[in-house]
Each structure stands twice: as C-alpha cells, then as structure tokens.
Amino acid sequence: MKSYIYVQTVSLDKGENHGIAWQARKELHKAARKVLATSAKILRNPFADPFSTVDIEDHECAVWLLLRKSKSDDKTTRLEAVREMSETHHWHDYQYRIIAQACDPKTLIGLARSKESDLRFFLLPPPLPSLKEGGLWCFGGNGLPYAESFGEVPSATVEMFCLEAIVKHSEISTHCDKIEANGGLQLLQRLYQLHKDCPKVQRNIMRVIGNMALNEHLHSSIVRSGWVSIMAEAMKSPHIMESSHAARILANLDRETVQEKYQDGVYVLHPQYRTSQPIKADVLFIHGLMGAAFKTWRQQDSEQAVIEKPMEDEDRYTTCWPKTWLAKDCPALRIISVEYDTSLSDWRARCPMERKSIAFRSNELLRKLRAAGVGDRPVVWISHSMGGLLVKKMLLEASAKPEMSTVINNTRGIIFYSVPHHGSRLAEYSVNIRYLLFPSLEVKELSKDSPALKTLQDDFLEFAKDKNFQVLNFVETLPTYIGSMIKLHVVPVESADLGIGDLIPVDVNHLNICKPKKKDAFLYQRTLQFIREALAKDLEN
C-alpha cells in the first residue's frame, strides 16, 4: 500500500518556524506517519524499519485487520471475515464507512446476505445521470412514442407495460448486455425510487435485476450502480415478496457461497441469508391455475389479510406459511417456491405467445429448477391444482433424460392439494356456459376428455408405483365461487384421487385447500408430518 501527503518545504531552522502554521504542520506530520505506520503494520507492508514495530491499540486495528482478512486468498478466511463484520454492532459510524469504502464486491455482497449486518456497511447508490430527452424507456429503442400513444392511460400502467417487456428481454443474456450498455441499471434504479409506493413496479424491476445477475460478467456493473445497497435494505423488509425478490438477486450475485442460479420465477423462501445450518433436503412449492409463488401459500384469508400486512406474531398469521412455519419447524430444508403465469381465459390476453401448454411449462420449469440445483438433494414436491399436473409431467420428462436422473433418484415424496388428475369441472363450465369467453389453453387441458390428461395420468401412475414414491392427496369438499355466477367443486373427490397414497378430504373450497387456518390446524400438521416422514433418513444424517 502506498500513501502520499504533499506539503510545502520549509526551512530546517526551528527558530524560523515557531508560529501556529509550524505547529500545525508538525502535528500533521505526526498524525500522517502514525496512520501510515498503522496501515503498513496491519497490511504487512512496512514502509520503513523505524515504524514497523509501532504499538497500536486493538480497537484501532480491528477494522483494517478484518479488511485484510476479507481479501485473503483462502476462501474460508474470507467468509469468516464477513461473518465477523456482520456480527459487529459496537463500531462507530466512521468504522462502518471505512469498510463500505474499502471492501471488495465479494465482501459487500456477503454482508448484504448476512442477516445481522448493519446497513451502515452500505454506501448510498451513486448519483443517477440526468434523463435524456425521450424518458425512461428510450434506452432500448423508440419506446416513448409508442407509450404516448396510450393517450390518457395512467403513467403507472404504461410503465408496467414497458417493464413487463423488459422482464422478457432480460431473460436473454445478449439483451441484458444491451440494457446495461444503454444505462438501464441507472434508469431502472430511478424508476425504483420514483415508485416506492408501488410494490408491483418495484418487484418487476427486481425481476429484471435478478435476471441480469445470472450473467456473471455483469456483476461488477450491478455492484457499481448501487443495487447491492438497495437490495441489502430490501432484504430486511417485513414484506415477504419484497425480501424474497431481493434474496434472489443477491444469491445470483453471491458466487462465494452459492453455486446454483435462480432464474426468473424461482424463489428461495429459506434460507435467504448465508447460514451455517447444513441444508439436507429441498421442498418445492408449485402453485396452480391463477396462483402465485407467495399468495397461494398464505394462511387462510381473513378479510384484512388478503393484502400483505406484516404482523409481529407470525405463528398467529403468516402471508407465506412455508417461509415462516415450515422453515422454523424444519430449518435444515431449502424451501423453494415457483411462479409462472396462468389465466382462465384468453379474452384480452396480453400476449398470444404466453399461451403455453402443460408440456411446454413443465419443460421450462424443469430446466429452471435443475439450474437451481434441484435434484442434488432429496426432494419433496408440494403442489396445488394444475401445479400437480406440472409436477407429474416434470418427473416423467426427467425420467427420460439421463442428465436429469438425480431429480428422480432424489424424489422422496409428493403432496397434491386438489389436483385434477382426471380433469376439472371448471373446464366443463368453460365449454358449456358462456361465462368464460375464449377459455385459456390451461383450462382446455383440464377437460375430462382431454387425451393428454389421460395419458399423463396413466403414465405417471405406472411410473410412481414403479418408483414407490410416497404420495399424499388432499381434496376439497366445499364449492368455490367463480365470479358471481358460478359455484362449483373445481376438483371433485374422484378427480383428486391419484390412485396411490392417502386421500384426505378437507372442509374447504378449492382456493383454500392449501391455506391452513392456523399453525396447529390439521392441514398444516398433516403436511408437516408427511415431509418429516418422507425425509426422515435424510434429516437424521
């Protein structure tokens, strides 16, 4: 390390320099030499022999010692340094700022992924460049004239439309390069700040950043633009969706402790931070028609709880029981929830390209899950409604691909919440009643006379029996209201029966079959029991 201090030369005759300026210069020299001596000793690079044995108080060295340790060639030493930093809560502000200014990107990302880290470790993002004429969306082309053609449509709606397009572009590596090259990281950050009161806009922006973080050559740009500091704060949010999106971004940036890559729609609910807890198995949650990665798995709704509202006692109410209840009961699990778009009708469909079959979706999800390391550990699959059909199709596809054999070999069990193995009455209504105009491809595939559905059921049943999978089936017994006109059992008892495993009726409707009323309720406790039994040998090791 080299340090330079420039001062004007003065006469060596002390008699000529007894004024205030001389005294100040003298003290400055003493302070400078002490700083240089301290840093030289700590970093094992003494600049002169007389100063290599200077006495230094421990509290003066702690920051610099940890910084040196964090830059060690030994990975274990680096990780230990980050852990020690994150557990330090007695420093002065300036000491946190020293770390923030001097640490390397690996250390910064590690601190952001450490649960106890003080937010003072993170500098404010650099100032954003001024907007050029054309607005936020012109960095990717001539988008503004098209956006203006919406006329009186609210700006937030236009921005959401543009954001959804950018999310799709960010799934392509070369497009990520263009987003970065044209200042997209800064422009998205400006939009993120402008819409602090619009979580949906912010989540779509985080989806883009998370997708860009899949490309390691963009990591330095993401760090320099200040996104790590923003995500460190978002990680501490009480809102599960916000913290989970931030966790995905930081996990994709953290190549020190994370080997897997989490593609769009794959969210780790636990553990979201770095942890010393050994992870022994995976539990995957796959939602169904009109579901989502988070809202499908919330506690059974009370009216005020439909909107995510954090509560102090998560045992009383949770907006995502896999993240709160299951993670606490089984801390050795990695819990993943998957999200994909579905619709009941193609009426006013936003994009015709989004009309995807079960076969297409299962192939897409299987690829994403394998990239996330699914199959490397024992696995339990938990699915609701159409999600169960995707699980069946994924396992059948994996069985036909040698490179996916670990997914099959490590599958320990499957839970189906009201899965229409033999079709759904929703499909019958969509055809016979004009309530659902232009039923979506997903709905059509749920028809009882669907050849694809029958083939899937027959093939999977034979396959599951051969592999001796443990299976648990839950089924609704109460009807579901669809709009104000239709009331029906979406999945009747006979359709929810896979043909193997226990079949358990529950006095709820289709939407609430996967939403326990409370932690000690039968639905959750029976689910927990199945997971523990299926993974008993793996969790013991």
Automatic annotation (TrEMBL):
Single GO BP term: phospholipid biosynthetic process
Keyword Hydrolase among record annotations: no
Protein name from the UniProt record: Protein SERAC1
Gene Ontology CC, one term: endoplasmic reticulum
Organism (species): Pongo abelii (Sumatran orangutan)
Record gene name: SERAC1
Subcellular location, record wording: Endoplasmic reticulum; Mitochondrion membrane
Family: Belongs to the SERAC1 family.
Record function comment: Facilitates the transport of serine from the cytosol to the mitochondria by interacting with and stabilizing Sideroflexin-1 (SFXN1), a mitochondrial serine transporter, playing a fundamental role in the one-carbon cycle responsible for the synthesis of nucleotides needed for mitochondrial DNA replication. Plays an important role in the phosphatidylglycerol (PG) remodeling that is essential for both mitochondrial function and intracellular cholesterol trafficking.
